[in-house]
Amino acid sequence: MQEHFQYLYEMLTQVQGYIYPNEIDLQWGLLIVLYPYITGLVAGAFILASLERVFNVKVLKPTYELALLTALAFLLVATMPLISHLGHPERFYEIMITPHADSAMAIFGFVYLWYLMVVLLLEIWFDYRREIVIWSRQEKGLKKWLYKILTLGVTDLSPRTLRWDEKIGYFVTVVGIPSAFLLHGYVGFIFGSVKANPWWSTVLMPVIFLFSAMVSGIALVLVIYMGVSYLRRKKIDMKALDTIAKYLFYILILDFTLEGLDQVHRIYEAEESFEILSLLVHGPLFLTFFIFQIFLGTIIPLVSLGILQLYKPGEMARRTIYFISSILVLFGIFFMRWNVVIGGQLFSKSFYGFTDYKIRLAGSEGLLWSMVWIILPFLILAFLLWLLPPWKKAEAKSI
Amino acid sequence: MKHSRRKFLKKAAAGGSLLAVGIANPFNAIIFASEKPEDPSKPWWGYGIDIEKCIGCGRCANACKLENNVSKEPFYFRTWVEQYTIKNDGEVKVESPNGGIDGFTQTVPEEDIFKSFFVPKMCNHCYKSPCVQVCPVGATYESPDGVVLVDKDYCLGCRYCVQACPYGCRYIDPIEKVVDKCTFCYHRIIKGKTTACIEVCPTNARLMGDLNDKSGELYTFLKNHNCLVLKPHLNTGCKLYYNELNAEVS
To answer: CA A27, A31, A37 angle in degrees (round to 5)?
Structure first.
């Protein structure tokens, strides 16, 4: 407690102009930056997977299961930053049992569960059901039991049942696409509907969140695919990689256009909040907005990926450019979330001044815990890839 | 049928008064809270602040902290006082050191001052309050008599309401880890007493009253003064009315 007060006294010295006295304690910190970031990665990875299944982009087959498992690994962690930032985390279940219908936040639990239980788990289960049954017969020890449990007692592998698996899996994916849109568009709405905050309150926010989610999720799958191929010492399927990079480029254009439109609209309308927001982006947010988000996270990847659409250098050069561009996109989208969440709280609602935010190392809102929520999905993904290796599916089918 | 027609007429009248306000300027603060509860026989609390009378002594902010056991640290206020100084060159300076509890020192030289005044701030107990709207579990709610309250045993501490309040009137209690705000001293008003801030105000700059009582103190205050609410464009249905509210006040 004393430590927190000490921090607030320190922040008090950083205040520029006038802020309401209750605004010194910035309410949503690094954890709430991670929340839209992680859900965005989930939605984006899922949409990439759907391209293969629903839109029949066969060239993406090598990344289909990987994208689904990535989405699941990150979705399992997505609620953790939210819950751990609550003043009373032990009361989190109340949002499920007594949701307040008027609240944009209240349906989060349902949107989340719908996406987890109805979309992702079902799709993965139907996709892997055949292999799970085969592996439950072939494997030994712990793995055998895990597969036996995962079969849920359904071991029928008749051609008719497998056709149904395919049909249901396809149907779930079709349902999953609007669900992924809902999941992240909804996260954008949580911010976009706060009329008290002019930096957040824009009707474009859900759409911007959605496209930035797709961009970040696709970049993540690209990086993970390259990383997994490297670790497995397997050759990367360049056709798949080129196609993913192409989609990344196109969606990045849309994302940048939408964000540009939002900013142009703000500048042209120049409402009463314009001066403070202008000071915000040219002052406290200059580095994270102009340099990290726009220059490093958007323009450089756009130019690099754009050049590769016109001119194709060798595989090694393309791989390097794809990898660096994707890392930059992931970096940029993180700072896009940062600029929304933290940026929206740096200026006072009185429009007369600014407060400051300093990341602390320890504590539930600190850097160390935040790192846990970023690293944990990768560990879960490693486990999922051990349990449900996409590259062994083909072998299982041949038996 | 009769009921819905009455409702329609009432809404139409409210809309009409919104249009008329620019021309006729009747005690215009009323319009911002035009959708009153159905039962006019019960109280519906509102609050008035006369900026002309406030001397910036900060006793209200201090009394509030004592009455409601608010942390003494200068980051948590249910009510506070702001000092506005408008300079001759148009620059606006706003200050509220320790919420005004320790009083104010004017740092702008007198010859540079065009105008200076004090503005007490507190929860606006909005009728269409964004904080009530966003609470994911309904822990923040409006009482039947028009007071926005928090059920502290139920609040998750998600802070969405703090973000949604346009007036900066909410904070997270550093001990209880739930949201806290002005309650119009609900524990006092239900016993027929007035709020702590009103009780200690030496100039009667603050007053509270029943908006359903046409002959009451608040209604009379609204009739006799040219009152406004903060940030009216946000349409939150504020029930905190200011006399002599300058456009600079935000």
So the answer is: 120
